[in-house]
Amino acid sequence: MSQFDLCQHTCEIGCPPHAGSERPVDKLRFSSDLTGILEHKFENFSADALVGEIEASQRQESALMAHRCGAIAELLAVRTAEAEEADPDPGYSMITGFARTTAEVSAAMNMSPRGAQHLVSQAEALDARLPKVAALLAAGRTDWRTVQLVIARTDLVSDDALMAQLDESFAERIGRWQCWSRRRIINAVDAAVRVIDPDAAKERRVRADDERHVSVTPLPDGMAQVRGSLPATAGAVFDKRLSEMATSVCAKDSRTIAQRRADALSALCEGRTLACDCGQPDCAARAHASESAAGGVQTVINVIATEATVTGDSDQPGYLEGYGVIDAEQVPELADTATIRPVECPTVSEDEALRYQPSAALERWIRCRDMTCRFPGCDRKAAICDLDHTTPFNQADPSLGGLTVPWDLVCYCREHHRLKTFHGGPGSWRDEQLPDGTIVWTSPTGRMYKTTPDGYDLFPQLRKACRAPTPRKRSRSKEQAKRVARARGKCASSAQSISKPGGSTTHAIGKSNCVDGATNHAGCSSCSKANSKVPVPGVPGSTTRSNPKNCHPTGSHHPHHHAPSTTTHLSKDGNENSCGN
Predict the structure, then answer these.
(1) Cβ pair 521, 551 in contact under 8 A
(2) Angle between helices 182-196 and 144-153 (to 10 degrees)
(3) Does residue 119 contact residue 105 with C-beta atoms inside 8 Å?
(4) Which residues have C-beta within 8 Å of that of residue 58, sequence separation ≥ 6?
(5) Which of 35, 142, 311, 421 is most exposed, with the fewest beta carbons within 10 Å of its own?
(6) Alpha carbon distance 487, 561 (integer Å)
């Protein structure tokens, strides 16, 4: 069990409760087991007491955010000093202190890279630009929502003296904004910025134009939300075009105007007019539904699903690239007009394993297996990621390591690929790929984070399709015995019989070097030059052909003459095949 206490007064987190200020919320205890069940009960609380608990928890949340931002700001200072020590010119630093901090925060909090960057920026602003506002947040006298607005609306004030004035002004007034709406807070902050720094207010319009964007966010039930920020004129044209298309169908169309506008957006993307759903063959809008607009662009989307789902015989959901999980019922509809390729782990030949660039089939398999970047918390889709060798590919001699095989390739977005390349190694970020595709990241502080392939979680069938060979436990004594046995067999087949007293027979055995007077080896140029017969030591009356000491029988154990080795790879059904090097 662990105590979770936050003082209700203006003091440090974790300080002892003040006399007379102890509230039930100060004694919240959280279970230490995996269920994380809150043990505190509210059954006997009155409505007034419950509202009090909610207010207290908001103050605690404010103090926690201040505590977290303070730790992030200090980490940023440490990593920035390290980066500047490695490269005094931050403009040319490969991995800046900000990027290093973002990576660690992203992994520790399981956040997306963009979310981590935003949080690190906010922590830096509170530490360097708004210290008095940060103190109010730590005291629980303002909430995190208000502080976020202050940070965002003052980010264009570059003069330190003016920023200090704004910080002091907000610290005096922010306590009276408890009941203000979001819009009213924005108006108050903007008004203060215009008074103290008019140039920053003018620059905000330019910044807003630079930050125009359109984003698509997955929603439940197979839907998505489209949001964007466009220039006013572009937004007006877009709105008018959707309205025109929505009203171009006949009066018997069954859809509402809102539904038609949504369908018009799909028609625009496909380069066609909006089709009417009235079902009448003489409808003019329906007649032109299949016509594509001039200059229409064909767009390709990728969907992953099991064969049973594609044929409509399974309820296992599919996966739409760039979106996420979709219902099984949607997959056959998409498959009707799609090109279908099997997703299977390809067999990698020996030559392909020694090439840096993977084959198209192998690349497709890795992207379908991973689905996203494999750095902790990163959700960038695999289609835009780099394929990286977990064990670096040896450009000078590929046979020495870093083979281009399924169990040594992984998807990393460009940001995290650069992080590993330029900020990797002992004391930095390191990754290891396990045979089942799990990536184990080790941070600069020694913390370990594991990520598993999304494809394996959504489609367990893929897990059995491809995996690295199971390592065998080596026994050097057994391997030595096998080599000796092979050498005995090869030498026995070509050695001459030697008569011993009593009628026994013996054969020369090839070990590290051939023994003088042992045998003449077929095809050995050194042996063919020495054909003189010499007596066999210890065997009266017997002779054999001499053999130079530098002759090594095929299969003998010698540093420069090994028996043929084998490389093991896996076929798509998981069976092992052996190929000679």
Answers:
(1) yes
(2) 40
(3) yes
(4) 140, 143
(5) 35
(6) 12
542-553 average pLDDT score: 40
Q: Where are the beta strands (DSSP E) in 201-266?
A: 213-219, 223-229
pLDDT for res 538: 41
| Domain termination site, one of 210, 229, 255 | 210
Residue with tokens 């051939």: 514
Contacts 24+ apart (CB under 8 A), 486-495: 486/555, 486/563, 487/511, 487/553, 487/555, 487/556, 487/557, 490/553, 490/554, 490/555, 491/519, 491/553, 491/556, 494/519, 494/521, 494/522, 495/519
For the record, the structure tokens of 244 come out as 């025109």
User: Which whole-number Å values give the CA distances from 383 to 295, 370, 372, in the listed order?
Assistant: 25, 10, 8
Question: What is the domain count for the chain?
Answer: 5
342 within domain boundaries = no
Q: What pTM value is reported for the model?
A: 0.66
pLDDT one-digit tens code per residue, 403-428: 999 999 999 999 999 999 999 888 89
Confidence check: pLDDT of 30 > 90: no
- State which residues form the domain around 558: 476-497+505-581
Distances (CA, A) of 451 to 371, 406, 477: 12, 16, 39
Name the residue type at position 380: R
Q: Estimate the crossing angle of helix 182-196 against helix 198-210, to 10 degrees.
A: 120
Q: What's the rounded Cα separation, in Å, for the pair 453 and 459?
A: 10
Query: Tokens in use for 25?
Result: 């919320």
Sequential DSSP letters for 327-339 = -TTHHHHHHTTS-
